[in-house]
Design brief:
With 396 residues, this protein is an all-alpha fold. Among the domains are: 45-188, no CATH class; 289-396. It has 20 helices and three strands. A three-stranded antiparallel sheet has the order 1-2-3, with no helix packed on it. It is elongated, with a radius of gyration of 25 Å. This is Adenylyl cyclase. It comes from Protea cynaroides. InterPro entries: TPR-like_helical_dom_sf.
Length: 396
Amino acid sequence: MQVASNARRISRVLRAPLLLRQERYFISDDVEKLDSKQGSFAVLSKISGSICGVSLPASSNVKFIGHHPMCSMMGRACFASEASATEGGPSEAVKELYEKMLKSVEAQTMPPNAWMWSMIENCANHEDIALLFKILQNLRRFRLSNLRIHANFNCNLCLRVTEACARVGAIDFGKKALWKHNVYGLTPSVGSAHYLLFYAKEQKDTELMVEIMRLLKRNSLPFQPGTADIVFRICYETDNWELISKYSKKFIKAGVKLRRTTFDTWMEFAAKRGDADSLWKIEKLRSDSMEQHTLKSGFSCAKGLLLEHKPESAAAVIQALSQSLPDKMKPGIAVELEKLVSKWPYEVVEHQKKEDRKALASSLVNDIRAMVTGLLHMGLEVTVNLEDLTNKAIPS
């Protein structure tokens, strides 16, 4: 039975062409990729509708500086801590716009739509956000009492507002924007929550992440593939296996289709912990939804085979991965192989009980050496420093 199980596992890893996929993260699932030239691309946010009965621009272009999801926000301003954001009071530009909009409402006329967008763009600190939410509440009252409009503002306004909250670190206001019933007339969306999750990721704040996920549930906001992407990265970067296990069950139960990048993160985490059993369960889920491997998922499988003392099979996985990649992608093999030799054994050993570390380290060193030898016999060019393997993996 065990032999049959191992054979099925290895065949599943090797059965399909292993392709390197360049996955990119998005702010939400409501964006469209427009261009992918020279390692950068633009997105078109679907921002349309109206705020106060006034038509909004059909779209708003946001340039991504790189592949990281935080880039669209970081391109405008760096995050500020909530402690420092309150210093100095509101900025002059925001204060002036607030006063103009308030006078317009008091005169029982709707302020120009451009003033609202300008105010959001100019928010630079916590006090600016406070004024923004104050004018939103005034506008909601005016719409309700004077215009008899009971509906909330367009949901894309909430997206822009929460982006501004995350940008300046005003997370207390950002969380208010996620409530289904709020006094500001905002219509929350999962995309709005993603901005706050990106902030939690930047701060490596798992408590904030958990709080935001609770707000999603309480306000009936369905999970999206992008939600899982961000949550898994936070768990990985904070080394919190319990949380990633908890939320993986929630996402799967909710029927969320996990992205390749999400599986990459999940499988890398299992391999990093030396948890081969979990790794093969994740690989089974991945193979059920997609056949092609990424570079990272393929190497995670190789690491799983090394943990099971199968260096020849690990070498076969890497060889198959090398054969499937176009020439311009093949340098990625060398990079991942270098990480496997110089970094991964140390990570695995660090996650084990102290009494088990030396034996596991010695075993990994021997199996990795055998795998490298196997790759050389297969004709694959391998340039790794095996001395680093011995020096870094085996604890003193």
